[in-house]
Write the structure tokens for this entry.
Amino acid sequence: MSLFGEFKRRRVFRALIAYGIAAFAALQIVEPITHALHWPDAVLSYVVVALAAGFPIVVTVAWIFDVSAGRIERAPAARLRGLPLAAVLIAIGAAAAAPGLLYFFVVRSPARTVSAPASIAVLPFVNMSREKEDEYFSDGITEELINALANVEGLHVASRTSVYALKGRNLDAREIGARLNVSTLLEGSVRREANALRVTAQLISVADDVHLWSKVYDRELRGVFALEDEIAHSIAQTLRSKLTGALVKPSTSNFEAHDLYLQGRYFSARRTADGLRTASQLFTKAIEKDPTYALAWAGLAETTALQHQYGAEPGSVVLPKAKQQVRRALELDPAMVEAQSILGLVALSSYQWADAEQALRKAIELNPRYASAHHWYAAALSNQGRHAEAYMEIDRAYRLDPGSPIINNNVGVTRYFAGDFDGAIEAFRKTLDIAPDFSPTHGYLAELYAVLRRYAEAEAEYARCTMPGYSERGRGVMYALSGQRAEALRLVEDLERRAKRDSVSATARGSIWIALGEKDRGYALLAQACAEVDPLFWDMKVDPLFEELRGDPRFHEVLKCFRLE
């Protein structure tokens, strides 16, 4: 009998087919289990190799044994035996296993990577530690991974503001991908126990919800920078992006300073007066641990400057401090785009328009993909009435970070200042779809409704604006110009009483008095606002709500004081 006939008689091929079906079924069970338990991809690879190794074994067993009348019996000897027989059996088993191995390791692997241009959103890592207060640490890892992946050439990374705007919302992978305009999502968890750190991470394709990569990392806390770099490299390699050396460079050698910095970022992101004060204290402590920690200096500068807007601290007090702090950050790291942008923000808040433009242009040169620099540059141009240039810059910011509430809001503000009210309403509504409680959008939408004399809608939006002094300024002027004099008087007199014990915007009070016809009193307050570097004046040149106030020559004198003319 021929060798082929002998194989048929011993049912070798039937055994191979049966084993192939069983191996395929086993893989269908094992693969979802490995993803559900967040096991590394290597586990699945080992299973595939083990199943492939079973093919030569099955061939050998089928050759040696036969099933007859329900009993397993040793098959009679054949002419082919010894090493030649072993070589033939192994060759047949290898040939049977080869298609499966080629499919898994060659055909399927490229199909599961993402074709260029690659894009990713790093979703907030879940805090799995026993202490809820450790959420700052999981948020910090999320933010540092975002920054690391932003350094990968050819990879578009959704910004922190875009990602965190969706935190806590029940959206599936496809919905998140569509909102953030990305093709992949990185999600994971962080567990911190004493000096031990466990991080799980998995990369998901938005198109089909397939896990492209997953891994569990167990490290010491002090190895967090190396861990972040390893994760970033794994993702970049999976997405087949071009790598250029280390993606995460240790920003400090002092672990305690880094931990304090992460806590500071956590409180700074709250954008409240108390949160900013706490953040400033934490950044200061981080600097005490490591005086050369450039990121901590930049964080301190930003929170100091933002207290001018959110914390009702006089700009004349906090902005010079912020300028010194950010200059120290740039001395330590001249190429830090975040610090260069903060320098622009400080100049912008100080009404030093030329300095702001210079700093922000330099930030854009350092990193043209840094959306915040384009956003702040657009604000500087828009507030000076340079609407065409502002349109170009805010469009660049939007294309880089389409999910950011701040940038979407500024798209609306830019259109509003330029007189495109329909376009502004559309942009403001989109912003509120992303972040329903975003206070600045409610404030500007209220002003727009007031300009359109849709007073009931304006009143409803002002009620949801919590920016210090902002809603009072707009509401008071709206009351005065719409003939609701009693309401305007009641509001401004309340502001004057509060000003005797707290810091209350002189721009808000002055604008309302001018709208009421008390111009001497109003312009005296606007002069005070200029001396205090009041942040509420920076849109007064272009905001349509205040158009009627601009006919007085004294108003233009105030504009000159703020370097707006």
About this structure: The chain is about 65% helix and 10% strand. Residues 109-116 have pLDDT under 50 and may be disordered. The domain at 254-368 is CATH 1.25.40.10 (Serine Threonine Protein Phosphatase 5, Tetratricopeptide repeat).
